[in-house]
Amino acid sequence: MVHDILITNIKGLVQVRENPIQKISGKEMSYLPVLQDAFLVIADGLIHSYGSMKDLPADVTAKQTFDATGRFVFPSFVDSHTHLVFAYPREDEFVMKLKGASYEDIAASGGGILNSAKRLQLLSEQELFERSIPRAKEIINTGTGAVEIKSGYGLTIKDELKMLRVAKRIAKETPLTVKTTFLGAHAVPLGKKKEEYIAEIINEMIPSVAAEHLAEYIDVFCETGFFTVDETEQIVEAGKKFGLIPRIHANQLSRSGGVQVGVKTGAISVDHLENIGDEEIEILRRSETMPVSLPGAAFFLNLPFTPARKMIDAGLPLAIASDFNPGSAPSGNMPLMISFACIKMKMTPEEAINAATINTAYTLGLSQTHGTIKAGKVANVFISQPLSSSCFLPYSFGSNPVDQVILNGKLISTKTPW
Questions:
Q1: Strands 2-14, 34-43: parallel, antiparallel or unpaired by DSSP?
Q2: Residue 293: in which H helix or E strand, if any?
Q3: How far from 68 is each of 59, 303, 391, CA to CA, in Å?
Q4: What is the mean pLDDT of residues 280-304?
Q5: pLDDT of res. 415
């Protein structure tokens, strides 16, 4: 049999896990299996086989062969929290921040989420797709193979649906694995009372999203000045009736109660966690909810970083995602997020890579198909640039460690159309 791809002489095949694994917690996060001097065979879009070079059968042939001497092969990153579909960047607000304006100041002046919503509402679905597709190529180029994309910059039925349709189109027209989240409760539109808008979310938006099968998840920005714990629970429970799984924006600007309501409602994840204490850690220890850190947002907004060491030492799992968005995290570069996690959150490289693969796959329901190297899983991998060790990935912050990208078993070029 002629296989599709054979990679030989791999210096280190990273994240080889024979046994099925859902998530990794506590001390286990420090273990990252690496198979030295390895080969990897890909066929029919899946990982076919792998092993030590000394065990490579002499009769293995492939349509494409890569010699990975001096290079590592990683499973593609799973980015479980992004706002990748948006209309325009917000560098003007970036300058306002540099001059001393806070996140709250910018939001109060009509900036922030409302600014993105106003500008997105002026674009057609096609225009929005054309503005978003380069960002999809950008994250592929830095090693991401699966991604969650949220709505939340529409804030009307028409425009929330438009965002989700664009996200679904990205799934069809790129090799990315895409999961979608309805985030109508991102902010309250200008000119509407909050209770009026919540009623619209529950009675009109959620049923419309469900009718078109546009989202797998529902999210709420549970934060001071946005949506309260009770409002979050009300919206999430309404979404659950339509089969939408909760994931919560929690504890970004304050100890908002987002963790508590996330666990109470059975959220698959609570994301941000820049402000988290012993109470929240203990609640998470008794749950199946995955805590997700977004270090790019903490860095860009100059907020406290998620206390990863305290959480992992308490036995918790932890995931890392990018929060790619125009206002508070304008980067979807997952190697950079791993670097932030190591440098600012004191995670080890092994912990950070586990957090960006296995644990993020868990939050997107992709544990059976993504996040590790295992026969039968989707062949989403990348071949690195020459590296002295896997630890060089977070050490060399800001550089792109990716040389070749393989998604769904096919070599991908981000420079030409798919």
A1: antiparallel
A2: strand 290-293
A3: 19, 40, 18
A4: 97
A5: 58
Residues 57 and 153 in one domain: no
Q: How far apart are CA 216 and CA 220, in angstroms?
A: 14
Domain containing residue 56: CATH number: 2.30.40.10
In a domain, 417, yes or no: no
Distance, in Å, from the CA atom of 103 to the CA atom of 253, rounded to the nearest integer, reads 9
pLDDT of the residue at 102 = 80
Domain extent, residue 50, equals 2-75+372-412
72: β partners: 12
Average pLDDT over residues 204-220: 98
CA angle, residues 175, 157, 247, in degrees to nearest 5? 60
Q: For residue range 230-261, what is the model confidence (pLDDT) as tens digits?
A: 999 999 999 999 999 999 999 999 899 999 99
Average the pLDDT over 124-130 and give the result.
98
Whether the CB-CB separation of 348 and 342 falls below 8 Å is answered with yes
- Domain with 191 in it: what CATH number? 3.20.20.140
Measured CA to CA, the distance from residue 417 to residue 405 in angstroms comes to 15
Nearest Cα residue to 117 out of 143, 154, 168, 73: 154
Q: What's the pTM value of the predicted model, to 2 decimals?
A: 0.96
